[in-house]
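step 4 of 6: structure.
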Amino acid sequence: MIRIGVDVGGTNTDAVLMNGETVVSFTKQPTSSDIKTGIERAISLVLKNSDIDRSQIKYCMIGTTQFTNAFVQRQQLNKVAIIRLGLPSAGALKPLCGWPQQMIDALEHTSYLIKGGHQFDGTVNNSLDWHQIKQAAADIKRKRYKAVAISGIFSPVNNDFEQQVRDYLLEQQPDLAISLSHEIGRIGLIERENSCIMNASLAKLATKVIDAFEQSLTNLDIQAPLFITQNDGTLMNAAQVRKYPVMTFASGPTNSMRGAVFLTGLKQAIVADIGGTTTDIGMLQQGFPRESSIPVDIGGVRTNFQMPDIIVLGLGGGTRIRLDDGITIGPDSVGYELTSKGIIFGGDTLTATDVVSKLGRCNINKAQPERVNHSDDVLKAIEHKMHQQLEDCIDKIKTSKEKIPLILVGGGQILINQTPDNVSELLRPKYAEVANAIGASIGQISGDIDVVCQYKIQGRDVAIASAKQQAIDKAIAQGAIANTVKIVDIQEIPLSYVKDDAVRIKVKATGDLF
Amino acid sequence: MKITKQQLEDFARGAALLGAGGGGDPYIGRLLAEQAFDDFDVPEVIDPDSLDDDATVIPIAMLGAPTVLIEKAASGDDLNLLLKEMEHQLGKKVDAVMPIEIGGVNSCLPFVIAARAGLPVVNADGMGRAFPNLDMVTFNVYGCAISPIVMTDEHLNALTIKTRCAKKAEAFARSIVAETGLSAMISCYPLTGKQVKEYGVKNTITLGLEIGQAIKFGRQSNNALGALLDYLASTEYYKNARVLGHGKVEDVLRETRDGFSFGHCTIVENKVEEGANIAPREPIILSFQNEFLAAKQGDKFLATVPDIIAIVDSDTIEPITAESVRFGQRVTILAISVPEIMTTDKALAIFGPRVFGLDTDYQSL
């Protein structure tokens, strides 16, 4: 299967041309301010460096941070009508509560609080008030809203109301972009509603970005369908991204980790993606990044997205080393100026790369390690401290005492030259520097479910089997080939402070796109 | 005094520490209070000693599963109804509200009802921390009646329980909560001003706020732990605060029985600096039942309930709940003494170590 994977980062746009399991060609190009030009340049180059005809390309996968950046920078956000189906529950909390004022100011919106909602077990807590819904629909039309966010209480357990209201609104106004909270977030009304509103605010930009990507492919004469990576490392097709752009948040670190899985074949490991400024350390479970269990704030807004649990360490190739008061490593970096400011490149700033170069740990093109005149003892002490920092982060990210392998990816991996004590082995796969673009090209599709069940009523086996089936159905609905879909994660979390045996079940299924 | 909207974040952080690992995440409570401050007015926080002896004060809380609270929150009217129904039961007007527990999500709830009803909040509570049960309250210890107990839900159902036994009240209330969708608003232990003055744990709202502020300001000078300990040392009742150890969470074991999360976590002390000739100390084991109950090293108890055992992130000093403790976290274990009113023989009979099945008598820090 021939395909192209692209990762658009803040500094570089990486592309790989893949044929099955083989990397045919790859490139690292500067990201362009319009994004599109950089992508076109990178894709042209990988094609040029291969003898593959562009007509043979079957898929094109892109990982991008544009949507995250747009939201955080409050740019290009469209106005949103917010509908909550919940009253009388949560009536004491309005939508957008807890948002930073400048974010609220940047987002033109109207909120409609409507009667309706479910209980934790999926039974109706209050039936929908259609009179209120009709009024809201008319108001939305009058105020010319094009994007609507709908959140219902306990909609992850029962999504009937969100869907009924969506269907009605579309009958009234077929061109509406409607975001449903149960398709985006999990239990936790405010966080899920926030994510849903964020998504709705990106509707217009999503159209623009996907149109531009598709235009780029047309310009390059590539007929292949376009896929975008989402935060769990699986893919969404272009049509889904137009509806759910928010699902691309944090796909960057995930792509690197998925790339590491592809390059090593390991499914349980720690991955350290060492760049120019920072190292992202995450843990793989069943071939996917472990999810963060703490709430994630984006642009000051609390969400409960499935985000990879990543520890960011201020250590990269350009990290500054100071010796005035013991050894201080970073956290600042000379970044892209490494090749002018680093000592081995003729500059006068001691960086992490200078240290390992002088110690003879690596050969760097056009470098002059002899320009570093610190003693070996000092340099070794610095190197020891860098290793120590990585080892500490590995300890934090691990979930058990058991030792598992460490996979190094990213351009800064030359900094680490010994196997930390707390891992079983150190792997440095070929093509590690473009692991992120490779990760984007893997081609898996997922389905997630998060529900609350009462084992006393359903029985544990039935409840779990039903949750599994829902996750599988969801993955297939998103495009996974049915006979490849597997359950990759099941979590049972008993609800505390409650005597009934109510349990929250989270299931994730994944399958192959091709 | 008032706690402003801007101060609620600090207050919630302090309340999380006083939750001793339990009490639920105060975030949803903080949002509810912020919204009430925006929509109504910021309530006055009053000194318990300024209360008239015959004033009427009611403690307020949410009861139920934190997972449901983060979905259904409060309707607002359910809180107003709670007040109205309690006034009806008592046959008199309520003069002020107060938290039943200062730890966790329930610390913020009285502010919501106070803002909505234009009542002051008394700077005191009935636990001085968080506890899992309705009977584990100083007012119960010193003989104040738990009844009438009023519970309301978002559909404006109101239920009243009258029983002389606080333990029985707990059982009744939990079964009502099962019918209301696992969350309800509750008020119990209606008090006179005199009772609040005699049996309340005083000034805990200020305490929560100032703990949160000490951590925040300490972070700015990179010494949040020092700032927190200095602050606690300056307080009247919580001054015996110490660090039991710094280390890494090496193991966490959990099980859920009867709606409570039981378990323990093992914390291994940080590596001794290389070259230092000190034998490594034994790991510290914290046991919990929703809240942390005891810290043990080998056979020795370092601290037990009712003193507050809390763990915080070693870098940020952000409190970590027992629910979110996990392998690899770098933590600092703190033990904080509680006021004397909580450590008398009578009090220990209600929430001392033996009540929680620990094989030790209470020893003060």
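step 5 of 6: annotate
 - Residues 1-73+204-249 of chain A form a domain with the Nucleotidyltransferase; domain 5 fold (CATH 3.30.420.40).
 - The mean pLDDT of chain A is 89.
step 6 of 6: archive
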